[in-house]
Amino acid sequence: MYRTAFSIGPLFSVASRWLPPLVAHGRGVCTIALAIVFASLFGSMGVAQTTDGQRMTKEFIPGEAIAMFQVHPQAILQDPALRLAPIEVISASGKHHVGVDPVDILAVRVVIGMPGPGGPEFGAVVTLEKPLEIESLNDKVIDRTSKREVDGKTYYSIPDSPPNAVLHQISPTQWIVGTEYFVTRMLSDQITDGPLAHLTSQTVDNGQAQALIVVEPIRPILSGFVNQALLQAPEELQDLSRLPELLDSIELRYTAKTGFAGDMTLNASDDVSAEEMELVIEKTRLYGRDSMLESIPLLLNEEGPVADSMRAYGVRLVNTLFDMIRPQAKGRSIVINTSDIQVDVASASILVGLLLPAVQAAREAARRMSCQGHLKQFALAVHNYHSVHKKLPSNISDKEGKPLLSWRVSLLPYLEENELYSQFRLDEPWDSAHNRPLAQRMPELFVCPSSPQIPGKTAYQVPLGKGLSMLADNPLRFRDIIDGTSNTVMIVETSPEWAVDWTAPDDWTYDADEPLAGLGGHHPGGFHVAMFDGSVRFVTLAIDPTLWYQLLTRAGREVIEGF
To answer: DUF1559 domain location, by residue (predicted)?
Structure first.
């Protein structure tokens, strides 16, 4: 077994991922699923009556099934622990959208098969406390005119849903909905036991919510998914790619008898696989713990007794939480038992509240560093361009000197964008029928990480004005930067509102009346500039206007002080 705590967050995440596709494929299926979703979400919030010791039946599980999810909505929704939950809203929504009160649902069993040409095959059996007549169902759920008989069973289509979605009444208190092929397989008298049916019959029903998955049929798919997810993962996590080969089945359970806890059981195919799986999980657990411990000082860079106490609490909380999920090998299973440990959610929430400003500050610091990196690459590209062409880059112009394309396009070969550069027609303007579509292929380097992305727009511009920047009537060289490359601004970071089409020969124009107009907005308090020496600096919006102008001129012969 492998057990770990979970609550409403992950379930809500799953719902938010799967509900949009359901809506896209048909409102009928979505409305039928509404009561199930509500019950599933709130099933992770309270204690439910259990049927400990009673094994689940293998009813409705064909041999080709790969996963089964079962939940008991009534037991969950009627629990006193949910006295503050919006039960009335859930009840009314179920009645309005489906015609069924979720409180009357005793059990929902969802069975999933291998994906077919038309998508995943599935069926959901809903067992009610009271008989439900077909007339009670909402018209959005059932197309009564589509009634047809197949092998002595009556099926109905579902409005605004895929053509293979059907609804069938098994008995006065039991209905099934799903893809037609899989529904007929679930109802077949000729069902043959498969690995999932066998696993289900050996599993105790906890009376709340649980899921079972057999790995063998989906091993190649699971391996591909895990390997793809690990492409950008640290080296310490790469051993997780072995899990699909080691696993035989997965069991998920929710139990709230002793607090917000859950069980995940990872069953290995043999003893050797179980030992290797334990090592992989333990290595991952330790990496997660150490990574969180290392981040605490970074999130709290303040000094003093209060900051010290927050760091100490963070360390204690992280160590406690990770101690709760320590794996133990038991036969061919890996066990992490949290059922007897109460997670103090309130305390954890307090820590989150205390750390949130620090986390936001850390994120902004990371974005600033990334933005600085972008400008450094621009500066390096300018230097490389100068080394090759013996001049600074300029706008691409026609024979009469009319600018056609930006200096940013000239730099593409020096930013590892040769392929994109070769697509431009350099004798046509940036907005020609050929060149205009290329603007949508703007490299990520041209975007400040802190700015809202505007397709084809960049905030990285050169300052325009008499005696400013590297753009001039005649080509310039570094030797023309008389004020010194470390004292002269080469590229500025404008506000999002002043962003320009990156391929257009447009840039930021200096205004003596409003010398800082259009600058800043990406980072609190100021903006970045790249100097001609290749360095990147952060300029505050409180900079002296005279000093700012002196930094912009390339040959003003000023003495720069205080920067």
So the answer is: 360-506
Query: Can you state the angle between helices 27-42 and 8-25, rounded to 10 degrees?
Result: 170
C-alpha–C-alpha distance, residues 96 and 90, integer Å: 10
Residues 313 and 336: their CA atoms lie apart, in Å, by 24
Give the rounded distance of the alpha carbon of 174 from its chain centre: 37
**Tokens 């080509």, located at residue:** 475
Cα gap 80→232, rounded to integer Å: 45
Structure tokens at 413: 């070969």
The total of other beta-carbon atoms located within 10 Å of residue 96's CB is 12
Identify the three-state secondary structure at position 86.
coil
d(CA 271, CA 256): 31
Measured distance CA(492)–CA(498) in Å, rounded: 11
- The predicted model scores a pTM of 0.54
Which residue type does 130 have? Answer: K
Kindly give, in sequence order, each residue whose CB lies less than 8 Å from that of residue 542, ignoring residues fewer than 6 positions away: none
Convert the pLDDT of each residue in 256-312 to its tens digit: 554 445 678 899 989 899 999 999 999 988 988 888 888 777 666 667 787 788 888
Compute the distance between CA of residue 43 and CA of residue 79 in angstroms, rounded to an integer: 10
Q: Which amino acid is at 199?
A: L
Q: How far is CA 198 from the centre of its chain?
A: 35
State in Å, rounded, how far the first CA of the chain is from the last one.
Answer: 62
Please report, to the nearest 10 degrees, the dihedral formed by the alpha carbons of residues 205, 210, 215, 221 taken in order. 160
Give whole-number Cα distances, 66 to 40, 206, 243, 319, in Å: 20, 21, 17, 36
